[in-house]
User: What shape does this take?
Amino acid sequence: MKKFFVLSLLVLLLSFGGVGCRKNYTPKHVAAVSTNGIAAVLNAGVRLDASLSQAKVLSPSETKEYAKLIDEAASDNDRFIETVRNLPAVDPKNKQQVIQLFETFSANLSNNFAAFHVKNPDSQKKITEWMATVQIALAGVDAFLQSAGVGQTGKQLADGVTAAAENGGK
Amino acid sequence: MNLDPQTIALLIQAGLLVEKDLVAWIQSRQGATDDQLFDKALALDADTHERVKALLATLPA
Assistant: This one.
């Protein structure tokens, strides 16, 4: 299953242009695709929160704090989506502004979840695993935005996914 | 964000929790227009907000 998951991510990256295989996708399009990934992961997070709460392995205060963090992150994602959506295109003139906006959102989200800890070790493990998927989604958006011509992040992500695919099959 | 390949590899290997969601998401987003994609993302976030609201309603005040 690990291999399948990693291969799915590879399909994602290759399909949506993060590593430059499909040049017909614009930066705006890949940003649109990627913000869906963040939304999907946040949606999975609130379902995890509900599940752990129902199993009584999260206290009411922990459940509440986790839910509020997810709610705030979804609102931030909404704002990022609205900003990018209203641009005619992500082009050299506005790309840095979009990247900066996203990286502020990304840093806030990462810092907020990194500071969140719960008492139950199994719950903490599940939340930590979920947070790793948040990081993957964030890295995806960042790489897609950067791949419009700025830096090496897209290449690093591609190299990382390739390494994971090789390791995941073992 | 500065992620080296090893960190990304570890993140991917740890990220099994929402595997089904990510695969379904990949399949459902292929071929969509920008507007459709933004609408889907906003709809997902709206669902997240609703789920948070419902969850908080189950908790003691």
